[in-house]
Amino acid sequence: MVLLVCFDLPRKTKEQRKQATKYRKRLTLLGFYMKQYSVYEREIRRNNTKNKIIAVLKQELPAKGQITVYTLPDEVNDQQIAILGNQGFQKTVRKPQLIVL
């Protein structure tokens, strides 16, 4: 399954921008990859891990920020479509799977 984190953090003051940057860096330390500027994703295998990560996200969220966490099953995530402009690039986040027939 994939955890998709969408967040909105205020960036009006210098301190708010600093907190937002710190939060985004923390997401990468937790194993998330940037999908868009305020949308990060991470593959997860166990519900226990998911619950621990969500607890960390709640605890470290700046006071005036908000996040939405989606849990996407592999079947849904595998069907996503990326539409790219001329300057776009495609990045595969999931690790390749070995299938033995």
UniProtKB/TrEMBL annotation:
InterPro entries in the record: CRISPR_associated_Cas2, Virulence_VapD/CRISPR_Cas2
Complex and partners: Homodimer, forms a heterotetramer with a Cas1 homodimer.
SUPFAM superfamilies in the cross-refs: TTP0101/SSO1404-like (SSF143430)
Protein name (record): CRISPR-associated endoribonuclease Cas2
Coiled-coil spans in chain: none
Keywords on record: Antiviral defense, Endonuclease, Hydrolase, Magnesium, Metal-binding, Nuclease
E.C. number: 3.1.-.-
Family: Belongs to the CRISPR-associated endoribonuclease Cas2 protein family.
Pfam families recorded: CRISPR_Cas2
Enzyme class: hydrolase
Described function: CRISPR (clustered regularly interspaced short palindromic repeat), is an adaptive immune system that provides protection against mobile genetic elements (viruses, transposable elements and conjugative plasmids). CRISPR clusters contain sequences complementary to antecedent mobile elements and target invading nucleic acids. CRISPR clusters are transcribed and processed into CRISPR RNA (crRNA). Functions as a ssRNA-specific endoribonuclease. Involved in the integration of spacer DNA into the CRISPR cassette.
Record: residues binding Mg(2+): D8
Cofactor: Mg(2+)
